[in-house]
Amino acid sequence: MEAPPPLTPAELAANKGPNILATICAISGVSTAFVVARVFVRGHIMRNIQADDWIVIAALFFAWACVGLSIEAVQWGNGRHFAALDVEQKQNAIKYTMFGFVPGIMSFALPKFAAVLLLNRLMNPSRLHRMFLWFLAFGSQILLLGCVVILFAQCSPTASQWNFSIVQTRKCWSPWLLVHYSMGAGSFSAFTDLYLAIYPSVVLFGLQIELRKKIALCIALGIGSIASVVAIYKTTSLVGLAKPDFSWETSELVVWTIIEGQTIIIASCIPLLQPLLDLARGRRTFRSSGGGGSSGYRNYESGHGTSRTIDRKRDDDMEEAGGSPGDHHPHHHAGGAAGLKKSDSQESILNADSDRKSVIHSRSGDGGGGNHEFPGRIVRTHEVTVEYDSVGSEHVRHGSDPDQPWRM
């Protein structure tokens, strides 16, 4: 790389390194806490770790790999002016900064897949819409990986970018090729983040639930829009890749790359942390009344008895809420249980197993007969009592528990 113009003594002494380290370590620590909380909820409380959880864990691994390489780059002089470094510092600052971009890009590309998986389960979009969501995720991944390819292929041999002894055989493209391509890829990535944040809000505002819950859900599911703002701002620092003062100009790009990745990771975890908030408040959506009781969240996705009936009904209701085409026939389960009809009459669903019975009651719109001891709740009549908060018919019609998307 060309040497930058002469600098003043103050510029030679300037060092962004401490601020870089403080920022990337702080945001990475916060992100790690959210991922740990997510894994605790999905693995310990719900006992149901799914593919999107593993994707987020992998993204966090890449994020910390980027942090580690960025710390090493700072130790060699990244964050200082290029002219203030000796040859060895210049070479290593370039090398570790370039290597750090690879896991950094993966850290904000992978969580998009986790977001699509969650939205497909929660919103149940049409087949065409699912294809579009996957197109956004895979399109972002492919375009962002193209940045990595150009970064390492722009000079031949590749090592000549950080090994100044390779001169005679060194051939390079214009650095602006990488800058312009990265701006395009970053813009598409920002659009993807924004779309994945806005889509659930549009669906939720079409449901018949109270405004307070709508706003809370839109914030929880739409916080990924912050990542799109970060991505847009980050594109303004991409020009540093073409500047001769590499170690100084790219320092902000390193920071914003890590911030973008960690922001998306945090945003992908927030919608799933409702059970943890309930535990902190001393609440249980499911409570055990038997001996040695364990948290009822564990029973939710076990796939047995009443839980399976509720899950299948939720899937049917969320399909209607998501606007997917097709008929919505009531499901019939063991013991003659049927899905809820769109009427105001008293309905009971009886589910019988070999060793336990479950009864689901919904409120009567006309005051008809039936057991009203626990209106709008679930009673398991053996050793465990499972209770839901009361919800209106519109809540049941559009999704049995719309304010807890983490259960999908």
Automatic annotation (TrEMBL):
Record-level GO cellular component terms: membrane
Membrane topology per record: Multi-pass membrane protein
InterPro entries the UniProt entry points to: Rhodopsin_dom_fungi (IPR049326), SAT4-like (IPR052337)
Residue ranges of domain Rhodopsin in the record: 37-277
Subcellular location per the Swiss-Prot or TrEMBL entry: Membrane
Membrane-spanning ranges: 20-41, 53-76, 96-119, 131-153, 185-207, 214-233, 253-277
Comp. bias intervals (Basic and acidic residues): 392-408
Membrane recorded as keyword: yes
Pfam families to which the protein is assigned, alphabetical: Fung_rhodopsin
Region (Disordered): 287-408
Similarity-based family: Belongs to the SAT4 family.
Protein known as: Rhodopsin domain-containing protein
